[in-house]
Amino acid sequence: MPSSPTPSTSPPTMDPVAAARWHHAAPAPSPWLHEEVARRMEGRLQWIRQPPASWCHWDPVRGGLQAHALLRQRYPDALCHVYETTPAHQATAQEALTPPWWSAARWKGGATQFGPPPEGAVQMLWANMALHMHSQPQELLAQWHRTLGVDGYLMFSCLGPDTLRELRTLYAALGWPSPSHQYTDMHDWGDMLVHTGFAEPVMDMERITLTFASPQRLLQELRELGRNLHPQRFAALRGRGWHGQLLEQITQRLAVPSEDGQLALTFEIIYGHAFKPAPRVRVASESAVSLQDMRAMLRGSTPS
């Protein structure tokens, strides 16, 4: 039986150099949309019966500092690993998420540790709105897989392909390059999760429409959310004439009469959830098993 094709490890419409530059230069405040998505994703944790003894908040500064408080409230006794992969945001995360010395929260409940957790150390990894801006998503999924212990689970969200569909239509009609790179479909994320070693992936999506009073406010929101990482984006800065045309076209094409002329943009939000199963060893004349996987199997898993 032929094996399934290996999912692409690099999105074809993303410039990896631009992606790395944005990752290190992204502004520190969590965008409103990120916080809202994190709030909705946190509500889904009510269906998880077994609370984690330890968990990791991955890149919380961009993913949602307000959402961190909700997670700590849900799991007050769990050890929390805060891992900020952007050096410029590490101090921000530590300042925002460390209780003051006089606060009772500093001495009660689970501790907070800053930095990468040891491999296999956490039962939940929380990553909000990060995956769609990463130039090597398969590598990032593999890193999350290594961080989780057996039977631990991943909770993540990202933007989907219907995001900015109104703006894409506008740019195409004017013969301009795409306003952003293409976002991955949720079914492809499910395939990548399985290929990485996760089990029982559950993927779903919703569309959120944001409205804006002016084209300037709309563009400000987009600048806070990210950058255009498409390799075929405009190669140089545009002038005032182009900018004025963009504002005019947004006003004309994105206005919604039923919303009193407000300008509307669609964002497709993908939610993903998957478990890390016990490792399996295929029957062969010679098999290699890592020490970590062997320990996991000896704790009760039977190789198949």
In short:
The protein has 11 helices and 8 strands. It is of the alpha/beta class and 304 residues long. Helix 2 packs parallel to helix 4 (65-74).
General description of the model:
The protein is of the alpha/beta class and 304 residues long. The protein has helices at 16-25, 32-43, 60-63, 65-74, 87-97, 137-147, 165-173, 186-196, 215-225, 240-253, 291-298; strands at residues 54-58, 79-83, 112-114, 122-128, 148-159, 199-212, 255-256, 262-275. Strands 1, 2, 3, 4, 5, 6, 7 and 8 form an eight-stranded mixed sheet that branches. Strand 7 (255-256) and strand 8 (262-275) form a beta hairpin. Helix 2 runs parallel beside helix 4.
How does the helix and strand content classify structurally?
alpha/beta
Number of distinct helices: 11
What is the terminal-to-terminal distance?
19 Å
Low-confidence stretches: 1-7
The tally of strands reads 8
Q: What's the topology here?
A:
Elements: H1 16-25, H2 32-43, E1 54-58, H3 60-63, H4 65-74, E2 79-83, H5 87-97, E3 112-114, E4 122-128, H6 137-147, E5 148-159, H7 165-173, H8 186-196, E6 199-212, H9 215-225, H10 240-253, E7 255-256, E8 262-275, H11 291-298
Helix pairs in contact: 2-4
Question: Which short descriptors sum up this protein?
Answer:
single chain, 304 residues, alpha/beta, eight-stranded mixed beta sheet, 11 helices, 8 strands, 20% strand, globular, disordered N terminus
